[in-house]
Design a protein that fits this description.
- The structure is a single chain.
- The protein is mainly alpha-helical.
- It has 4 helices and 3 strands, in the order H-E-H-H-E-E-H.
- Helix 2 (26-34) packs across helix 3 (41-54).
- The longest helix is centred in the middle third of the chain and has 14 residues, at 41-54.
- It is globular and about 35 Å long.
- It starts with 8 loop residues before the first helix and ends with a helix.
- The mean pLDDT is 90.
Length: 84
């Protein structure tokens, strides 16, 4: 991947969870985010769908619950954020 798109703050929060915990379902990400703030499941779902379109994450649809994995490398994204 060349230069990943710059994630929004909400997308960065989700990427942080995926970088730290590895591949996750929307429910798992939602549960992790809800520890710090109240947010709806559908909001997380929509954010992750947009992140898939942007190329920040990929979705494995082989199981009933889709599993998302971070595509954007942590170091590259953080380096980009710092340089901007």
């Amino acid at each position: 991947m060349t230069n990943p798109p710059v994630p929004t703050n909400a997308e960065l929060e989700i990427l942080g969870i995926l970088w730290e915990q590895g591949p996750q379902t929307v429910k798992q990400v939602h549960d992790a985010v809800r520890v710090t703030r109240d947010i709806g499941y559908t909001t997380i779902l929509k954010l992750m769908q947009v992140m898939t379109e942007k190329g920040l994450v990929k979705r494995d649809e082989s199981e009933r619950s889709h599993v998302y994995t971070a595509l954007a490398p942590e170091k590259k994204v953080k380096r980009k954020l710092v340089s901007d």
